[in-house]
Amino acid sequence: MASSMENQLQALLDGRPDDSPGALLGVRAPFIGLNWRGAAGAFDGDADAALAVSDGFRIASMSKTFTGVL
Predict the structure, then answer these.
(1) Quick check: 24 and 52 in contact, CB under 8 A?
(2) What are phi and psi of 21, to 5 degrees?
(3) Number of neighbours of residue 43 by Cβ within 10 angstroms
(4) Can you tell me the distance from the alpha carbon of 18 to that of 31, in angstroms, rounded to the nearest whole number?
(5) pLDDT digits (tens, 9 = 90+) for 53-70
(6) Which of 44, 6, 2 lies closest to 25 in space, CA to CA?
(7) Rounded to 5 degrees, what are φ and ψ at 64?
(8) What's residue 16's pLDDT?
């Protein structure tokens, strides 16, 4: 089941519009044995530098939302 889900998640990333920025997605669902990370698109608008799952994005002020919830 997890492999099918992983393929669907990667297809979701791969199906984004060509002019959209790169995307990273991580999904953890331990009850079904899923711990998946995927990447699609280019890093920093450079078509020669594809995103990798080990890349990261700065979230800047977005962290205030998470801190407020905690």
Answers:
(1) no
(2) -70, 165
(3) 17
(4) 34
(5) 888 777 778 778 878 888
(6) 6
(7) -60, -35
(8) 85
Residues 27-50: what's their mean pLDDT? 84
At 4, the amino acid letter reads S
Token pair in block for residue 52: 């990798």
- With CA atoms as reference, report the closest residue to 34 among 26, 23, 42, 22: 26
Distance, CA of 50 to CA of 55 (rounded, Å): 10
The two tokens of residue 47 are 């078509």
Task: Tally Cβ neighbours within 10 Å of residue 62.
Answer: 10
Which residues make beta-bridge pairs with 37? 26
pTM, 2 dp: 0.67
Judge contact between 57 and 27, C-beta under 8 A: no
